[in-house]
Write a structure and sequence with these properties.
This protein has 208 residues and is mainly alpha-helical. Helices cover 80% and strands 0% of the residues. The protein starts with 6 loop residues before the first helix and ends with a helix.
Length: 208
């Protein structure tokens, strides 16, 4: 969301006929919500006598989760810019050979950015998943369910952003570039699903 934009305004934008914000922005928000919930669990654990043994570690987690929250929130605007660049490139004139060549070059350049932006979102969401695991294991039991929501939100963001990587990489002529991005993506997805389920089960066991 843009600075000072309300959640209602953002959701109205998602629901509208406008192409942006779209799924890429929603993926980033999912990751940012996960990061925010990690921060909340940390903030409600740090300073509690019962959790003094994990305070130093959770302070580090908090610093990282806040950095990721800011990074993911900024990605909403980055996603819009990347999409607009692709659409703008497709809208370039193509009446002459020179125009067609220039248009093709611009499309490919825009698609490279539009592949890298959601991939960066995937990296950030994957990092949030790791942090959520820590808070689920060591966070304040009074808010431990929020660590479960954090990992689920981050995993949703990761898988959602991955779809945009796939769709944009598919249009790239530079297959070496595309395959390198897809290989990294598969690495990020890797054990994210099992880790998501493991963390959820840890939380469920603590609240049941």
């Amino acid at each position: 969301m843009a600075e000072h934009e309300t959640i209602e305004t953002f959701l109205d934008g998602l629901a509208s006929a406008a192409p942006t914000p779209g799924g890429g922005g929603a993926a980033a928000i999912s990751g940012a919500m996960g990061a925010a919930l990690v921060s909340m669990v940390c903030n409600l654990t740090i300073g509690k006598k019962k959790y003094v043994a994990v305070e130093a570690e959770l302070r580090e987690v908090l610093a990282r989760s806040e950095a990721l929250r800011a990074e993911l929130t900024a990605m909403i605007a980055e996603d819009v810019a990347a999409f607009d660049a692709v659409m703008g490139a497709y809208g370039l004139p193509k009446a002459t050979d020179d125009e067609r060549a220039a248009r093709a070059e611009q499309i490919q350049a825009a698609l490279r950015v539009a592949t890298d932006v959601p991939l960066a979102c995937c990296r950030a969401c994957r990092a949030v998943i790791d942090l959520a695991e820590v808070t689920a294991e060591k966070g304040n039991l009074n808010v431990i369910s929020d660590a479960g929501v954090a990992v689920l939100s981050a995993h949703a963001g990761l898988r959602s952003a991955a779809l945009n990587v796939y769709v944009n990489a598919k249009g790239l002529d530079d297959r070496a570039f595309a395959e390198a991005r897809l290989k990294e993506l598969e690495g990020l997805l890797g054990d994210a699903g099992p880790l998501n389920e493991k963390t959820y089960d840890v939380v469920k066991a603590k609240v049941s």
